[in-house]
Amino acid sequence: MAIHDFAGNPIIMPPDQPSPLGENCLLKMHGIRKRFGATQALDGVDLYVNAGEVLALVGENGAGKSTLMKTLSGAYQPDEGCMWLEGKTYQPRDPMDARRLGVAMIYQELSLAPHLSVMENIVLGVEPVRGPLMAWRQIRKIARDAMEQLGRPDIPVDIPVSRLSIAEQQLVEIGRATAIGSKVVVLDEPTSSLTSRDIAGLFTLIRRLRDQGHAIIYISHFLEEVKEITSRYTVLRDGKSVGGGQTAEASTDTIISMMVGRKVDDLYPRSGHTPGEIILELNDLGGLKKPVRATMALRRGEVLGIAGLVGAGRTELVRAVFGLDSVRSGKIKIGLHTGPASPARRWNQGMGMVSEDRKNEGLALGLSISDNLTLSRLGRFVTPSGQAVQSARWIEKMAVKCRGPRQIIGDLSGGNQQKVAIARLLHHGVDVLLLDEPTRGIDVGSKAQIYKLIDELAIQGKAILLVSSYLPELMGVCDRIAVMCRGVLGAAHPVRDITEELIMLEATGAGATS
Amino acid sequence: MTQIPPAAKIIEAGENRGFNFRAVLSALGPVIGLVLVFILFSALRPRTFPTAANASQILLQGVVVAVAALGTTPVIISAGIDISIGATIAVVSVATALMLNAGMPPVLAALGGIGVGGLCGLFNGACVTFLGLNPFIVTLGTFLAFRGVADVLGGESEVYTSSNWLNDLMNPSQSLIFPWGVWIMVILAIILILMLRYTRFGRHIFAIGSNEQTARLCGIAVNRAKLWIYILGGAFSGIAGVLMFSNENGTGDPTTSKNTPLTAIAAAVIGGASLTGGQGSIVGTVIGAMFIMTIRNGCVQINLSHGVQNIVTGLIIIVAVLVDRLRNPKNN
Fold first, then answer.
1. What CATH class does A278-350+430-507 carry?
2. Given this chain, do its domains A25-102+183-260 and A278-350+430-507 carry the same CATH topology?
3. Residues of A with Cβ-Cβ distance to B203 under 8 angstroms
4. Residues of chain A positioned with their CB less than 8 A from the CB of B217
5. Contact at CB, A424 and B14, closer than 8 angstroms
6. Please, what sign has the CA dihedral across residues A144, A149, A154, A160?
7. CATH topology for A25-102+183-260?
């Protein structure tokens, strides 16, 4: 089945599509173009979504998803193209206008006022008033109704939202959209900070909204989620809509091929690794709260994966090993080194870490690429040109797309930022790499590059500890996988002896092995 | 895999002039402002304002504030703040006078004064790092407390000293064109420029200010660095205090420099420093200080009252920062 063509020509939709202008069609975008300076961010995008439907919008980072959604929400005005909402021309002046017209965006970073109550957040900006006074009774009713509509009447509406969990806060944000009658709800990477139980809750909520006749646009990197929750998908690549179809009929590989514009046979290259001597050893390691107990041994030339649910204590484990969090009990041995830990000591001992939180911890976004890359390994005296020369080498080697080593790193795409974060370890010349969710939120192309790099490093005899919530990645890259559950690290299994199902069993505490 | 871009070519393109030109233009902002106010006052007072004597006067008036501002720039770059500068200057000025009166030679008294400044910085830094307190709150406390120390040391009054060469630091000198104080400021500025740009400590200051967590992840001893940043700031206030002592003809004055902290911070911000950290320039800070002093001097020359001067200076600070924000929309 020829779904796409390699010359990048637009792809003809499968014939069994309902007509884009069907009477159910709630929102339609046609021929949307938007240019920023020399960059053609959107180059003719067509998209529609029906009432009572969940549409997946997928594409690599930089494909134009955010620009498209900002156009939809009125933050950008398109250069060309038309939009219709409920059969009428739709031209929002700004995001507030879009909300009033019935299109609401729920971004990854929630936009709630943490000190205000649930109900105040729900009516924020559209507060019903009686003369100069807030109409509290009415506000409370609106908020209660919204929570009820979302199936969570148990959430009290008069407590500050900061006291709710992230998942509940997201719910409040969705409630804010539905309470003012938004018909189109756009969810941008809504699960990235949720636990798997919360994700299940969110999906229930999405189905509920769908059944109530809302049109939902669901943006996600996680194709498994796309397959689970959406009924139709549209793929964006290089600012164009390059295809789409019924989600149930498309395989993950098909969708990925469309996203990257080529076939992905070997996203996970794996050469035969030959494990050497043990270089990192944990003995009953315990942190202040987590990890509770962790014992493992990592060898040179080996990739060891750590799986587990969000909150299982994997990040805490890595932080404790790296000396960022204190250790309560147990032993860490790196090569021949034991004794007290601090990040400075770890770097000296030949260990480096990539943080899961690229924006707040991994990188200093306001500084240049070269400052970020060389930060752990500056001589007593430094010259900016020397830093730039050193960095240029890694920029080339890692194929970081940038204007040069002195470009501010915050300007780069997530994938390119992450390459720099990893290059810092390589520049330092570490032997043990602690990688905490190194591919979170980055495009497939960069992911493939990082997998290839991990493989090369293992061949060179480096030891890699890979924490990831993405099972196919762990299965594809690691030699052995250990599962963490409630702070306890289980025994490591050779990857050929384990399946995704077994990992999930162990991660949820149902497995027999831990 | 994905099309790997020819990185060498990309680097070349990134290092082209257009990119640097914008950076230069952005650094020139405060200079342009300084030139503009200079032209403005020259037009208003063509006979008295644009003279060598007056320029020298402006420079001299700006020295104390500039030195204090120099010391506070690394603090601001590291995302800290020090509003106890003025009180530190007062403590140092009184302490220097007392040391002289106790019979210490002027060199030792001056160095002692700078040391006292460093101790003040150490106290601030220790509260910020070891106790984990907010630097604004800490220095708000020492803003009062150090002033109190100066009062207690000076017995609630000025401390006079007999004449010695320290008094001449701020007097016009025949051989050097400018008074010693101006040259001290220039030398200190050069030292700081080199330190911030070419030493590991300097780069760590930027890293801490830009993202403290990243700094920690990269193995930087954040607390130790911060402690040194505050000690450095205190020592610079100490130098400013000795110059102040000299400027007041050898008087230790516990009430001196009430406005200095805010003027110094404003100078740094006008010069391109960001109060959220990670950004700042020593050249910018010096120009910022001179900018404020030029406005002060010009206002005196066109006979504006003290109150009106303050109104003008205050509004110009706001406008300067606004202009800076329009120049770099990302900094907001």
1. alpha beta
2. yes
3. 371, 375, 378, 382
4. 322, 324, 343, 353, 355, 361-362
5. no
6. negative
7. Rossmann fold (3.40.50)
